[in-house]
Design goal:
Layout: H1 14-24, H2 26-29, H3 34-57
Length: about 90
């Protein structure tokens, strides 16, 4: 009935099927080359290290709790100008 499921409604492209099989099995064929090593080091060590350095540099520099309009967000600054009244 209705073809019995023995036909393909979409024609398969062999190149796309080979690429798909390669993508599914990439972990089986992976080897660390110079390029792969550089990428792993950059994305695994350098980028998180840079983010950590920026986070440590700006840690406790800004204080947003209880600030009013016109007051400085930078910790340790006093004597901010009050907001102008209209």
């Amino acid at each position: 009935m209705a073809g019995g499921g023995h036909h393909q409604s979409v024609r398969l492209d062999p190149a796309i099927e080979r690429w798909s099989a390669m993508r599914e099995n990439v972990y089986q064929n992976f080897t660390f080359t110079r390029r792969a090593s550089r990428t792993a080091i950059a994305l695994g060590i350098l980028v998180p290290g840079a983010i950590a350095l920026v986070a440590m540099a700006y840690d406790e520099k800004f204080d947003m709790a209880g600030k009013r309009r016109g007051e400085s967000l930078i910790t340790g600054q006093s004597g901010a100008k009050p907001a102008a009244k209209e």
